[in-house]
Amino acid sequence: MQSFNRAFIGPGWQVYDRIEAVGNLGGSTVSDILTRDTSGALWLHTGNGNGGFYGRVKVGTGWQIYNRITGGSDLTGDGRPDVLAVDKAGVLWLHPGTGNATSPFTARKKIGTGWGIYNDITAVGDIAGGPAGDLLARDTSGVLWSHLGKGDGTFAPRTRVGGGWNTYEHLIATGDVSKDGRPDLAGIRANGDMSLYRGTGNWKTPLLSAQRVWSYDIGFGYNHAA
Q1: Burial group, residue 220, by CB count within 10 angstroms (0-12, 13-18, 19+)
Q2: Following CA atoms 57, 13, 192, 199 in sequence, which dihedral angle do they give, to the nearest 10 degrees?
């Protein structure tokens, strides 16, 4: 197990109730993040390539209707990352990415209902070896489900990945941490311990067994969602 020190980025982030890594949403060469403030305004923070971000840009309002938001995976096959959000009625919405930092989405599209059964979702990229980005979702009993992307913004019927995932506070799409060409998944416990699940590229068994990789010195240190 490794322990890593934190790097200071900036003050005042307590105004946000959600922070999401969304990949190269703004069309630059580095990854960005989305934040939502408590009024429901959505902000894009484009990466500066040095571990920090440029000044935020307001890219939406009314996002308080969502209780789950995830992004960073290309779900429509156009080479640009998209964002998914679940509203409080359990409806799943796709916000297709444009690659434009000032207006990063086209009109949202309704792509499913009944998603209120999940308490965490994460867009993990092409984790199962298919043609498009995929989605992992954890239900309230701790079962993890894979929803394989079809490349048109929709998903194939879900596949059970495993149980016991309610031991994690948050599930995080990490990208290709293991540098084997396949995206990986991290699970973070309430005490800050992180376990890495390497992607296999196999849709039936998309993840290898957990590998414990780090612990923050001061406990829980990653704010994925409020």
Answers
A1: middle
A2: 0
- Measure CA 204 to chain center: 21
Reading the block at residue 1, the tokens are 């197990």
Alpha carbon distances (Å) from 134 to 2, 32, 131: 29, 19, 9
Cα(40)–Cα(18) distance, rounded to whole angstroms? Answer: 10
| Tens place of pLDDT per residue across the chain (226 aa) | 444 556 778 889 999 999 999 999 999 888 999 999 999 999 999 999 988 899 999 999 999 999 999 998 999 999 999 999 999 999 999 999 999 999 999 999 999 999 999 999 999 999 887 778 999 999 999 999 999 999 999 999 999 999 999 999 999 998 888 888 889 999 999 888 899 999 999 888 999 999 877 654 333 334 444 3
Question: Who's near 50: CB < 8 A, 6+ residues apart?
Answer: none
Give the integer Cα–Cα distance in Å for 126 and 4.
28
Residue 124 · residue 173 · CB < 8 Å: yes
Q: Is the pTM of this model over 0.85?
A: yes
